[in-house]
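Friendly challenge for the regulars: who can give me the structure tokens for this chain first? No prize, just bragging rights.
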Amino acid sequence: MCKEIAELYETDSAATGDHVDVNSTNLAIENYEQAAELFGMEDSKSQQSQCLAKVAELSSAQLDPPDLGRAAHIYEDLGRGCLESNLLKYNAKGYFLQAIFCFLAMGDSIAAQQALQRYQSIDFTFSDSREGKFCAALTQCLEEFDTEGFATACFEYDRISKLDPWKTTLLVKVKRSIEEQTDGGIAIGEHAEDGDDVDLT
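First reply, four minutes later:
Bragging rights claimed.
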């Protein structure tokens, strides 16, 4: 029931057009958290993970300001949980990628680099995976304020694994922060705010 209530609040927050209803988003997050706790008590790991992933998604994308730190830690915990199961261990890379995106969107290249090293140490397949290489490239681009390298990395990854709206939104934040720090303008951010198509290249 808590999960269903959360879904209703989430739908309600998105039904206001371009404006996100922050109150409905907060209520959705609270109910997803409660649902995750209850599913955890019943040892329903899959349902618990789904609800926690929703908390992270809403916290990072629909709150103003977004709670990227909280989302990053949730995604990291979900990734670690996946590594404990032979059936789910391949899903860990996706969660680690989302966690890195959150750190990068915060403009914290040091935290992103530290997280990348953690994930490489606990998941020996991460470094050579497409997700791991993408994270390493993006982290390096943020450290070096390299907008061209950033665009190239996004383009190459998107050719194989399409970037969903959540990932695109966070990548726009990262690219905007690089451009601002290099006085390169914020055209991509302006397009995103105007509701135009986002071109990360």
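The CA atoms of residues 112 and 118 lie 10 Å apart. The chain has a mean pLDDT of 88. Your move, everyone else.
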